[in-house]
Fold:
Amino acid sequence: MKLGKVLLYVLLASWVGVCFVWGQAGIDTIQWEDGKKTANVVVKSFDFAQVKYKEGEAEKTAPTSKVSRIDYGDAPSSFKKGMSSYSQGNWARAYDLFDESLSKSKFGARKWLDEYSTFYKAESARWLKEKAKSDEARRLYLDLIKRFPKSSHLVNARIGLAQALSALGKYEEAFGALKELRGNSDLSAALGSAGMSRVGVQIGYEKARMLEMQEDFSGARSAYQEIASSAASSAPTFAAQSRGKVGEMMVRQGDLSGARSYFETIRGEFSRKSSLAPHEGVLLAAALAGLGEVLFAEKKYTEARRVLAVVIVERYDAPEQHAKALYYMGRVHDALKDSEKTAESMAQRYYQRVRSLHSQSEWVSRIP
Structure:
């Protein structure tokens, strides 16, 4: 009986190895920034400068800037499941799985696994937005930076460290972390002027975000405007996000008329375009959600509903703005509950959609 069970397990293990190829060498896949991929390679090393890999008998290298991500064929199931949970925004589950990957895996030749699990555990902890988890994220980022000083995750780890410190109210230390990133000579040599220019945009965006967190809306607005103006070609995603943020800061400053005009101008830019680039879609969603917020504040509920409905129906590609639109659609219906019979129940439906579709969003905590 015992022998039969052993044979069964061996057969099952063989089947799993064929179907999922866990732990086999030579099956790494490099996903490139241009959307292409190179499969069945052995990745030798991957740092902030370059990736070295073997394809067949050929030894090859490519700059890290060309790489979107690497899928390692020898990744354990806990790591694979962690990445799946992370991509779905299930930060608590991802945190547990990356913790399991770190505590139970035997790294051996898989040094990448230690590095990646540490980074993504830190990211998951930070996204949980709890004080204790922010402090743990801080410690994990520092550990990664110390043990893997040339990590391909170095830039994002430094920025994540700054974000964790900001969440703890340690703004001076956060600014210091960003300053060290800009002053990293090895990173600068590896990325060149163009690469460091993109890093500079990321740093500028984080500084603007920290000013916003400190409720310095005037300073944040100026910082976001600088990025929106200077990074349109070099970093279009950050430029688009910053343009949306400029309007948000106008709202925070109480300039509703100016914000409405600003958002309407952005909406007009895309009124005749049949298709949008991803960063354009995010910008349009920010403008429409922001416009909906302004119209709600001005008690123009019919117009607000019409604008917010566009984000809700068409802009799933901008989750934070989608959550915001659902929230304000709920607020609009709350405001109409004395004049429309179904308004109160409709408000609850929209609030529930925020909770179910965007459970990790800040808008959940704002629901009345």
